[in-house]
Design brief:
Elements: H1 2-20, E1 26-30, E2 36-41, E3 46-48, E4 55-61, H2 66-81, E5 86-92, H3 98-108, E6 114-116, H4 117-120, H5 123-131, E7 139-143, E8 149-154, H6 159-170
Helix pairs in contact: 1-5
């Protein structure tokens, strides 16, 4: 039985990696409020149809990660301050179910969309492959208003750093 499970998991991982290598793949993912997002990989980034004309901060985080937890107030402030120009999307990658993440977001007062890995589908694998992400969190991908990736970082970004990124991308 164990060999069968290992075989099945290997096939799933290889399928996800093969899927991720292709640029023009389309994805849907759903946030904890039920909103569905439609994304498509491009040569230079990813376009999220519902967020066109906004700077997007995709923050891959974990509910047990101290730097991730420390980042939440900064992203909340950023979302409030720049609500017409940016969108933060927090994608939880430490195994919370959609219901657990929804409760967590409410407890923390998160004012930006959150997505559980179970509702992200292949999107997380796709980003990992394209960005050479090894799984360290927090991990941030910043996409400009045209869908071009402008910034990638493993590790926490300071509030001043977030503002600098927005200023540079907005030029």
């Amino acid at each position: 039985m164990k060999k069968i499970l290992v075989f099945i998991m290997s096939i799933l991982i290889l399928s996800a990696l093969a899927y991720a290598k292709e640029e023009n793949k389309s994805f849907t993912f759903t946030d904890t409020s039920g909103k569905v997002y439609h994304a498509k990989g491009t040569k230079d980034g990813i376009i999220i149809n519902e967020l066109k004309n906004k700077i997007v901060f995709l923050e891959f985080f974990g509910h047990k990660c101290p730097p991730c937890l420390a980042s939440i107030p900064h992203y909340k402030n950023l979302q409030t301050k720049h609500k017409n120009n940016i969108e933060v999307i927090g994608i939880e990658v430490q195994g919370f179910s959609n219901a657990e993440l929804k409760a967590f977001a409410q407890t923390k007062g998160i004012n930006y969309p959150t997505v559980s890995q179970e509702k992200a589908g292949y999107f997380v694998s796709y980003i990992a492959e394209r960005a050479n992400w090894t799984g360290a969190i927090p991990f941030v991908v910043v996409i400009d208003k045209k869908g071009v990736v402008q910034f990638i970082q493993a590790g926490m970004i300071t509030p001043a750093g977030m503002e600098t990124i927005i200023k540079e991308i907005s030029k």
